[in-house]
What does this fold into?
Amino acid sequence: MTTHVSDANFGEEVLSSKEPVLVDFWAEWCGPCRAIAPVLEELSSELQGKVKIVKLNVDENPSTTVKYGVRSIPTMILYKNGEAVDMKIGAGTPKAGLSKWLTSYAASNAA
It folds into this structure.
C-alpha cells in the first residue's frame, strides 16, 4: 500500500507525519527500483500503522530530490519527526534486513 508523494505534498505527507516515513526515491526507467518495489509493497502492508512507505519519482519531482541530495536511485530515506534520520542506497538489502531496519524506528517511535 505504498502511496506516491510529490514536491507539492512532501511536507504534508512526509515531514508532518506522526509516524516514521520511508521515502523511496525512484524512476520508471530504473531496474533496481522496479525490483525492490514488491518488497516495499509487502513491508508497507506488514508495517501499516507503524511506518508509512511512500514513493517519490525523481524525474517528476526534482526539487525534493535535489534538496535531500539524492544522486543515485533507488535511495530510501527514513524520516522521523520531520527530519531525515537514516538512508539506504541501492536495492541490495533483503526484505528481512529492511524490515528489521524499519521496525527499529517504529519501535523507538512507540516509546
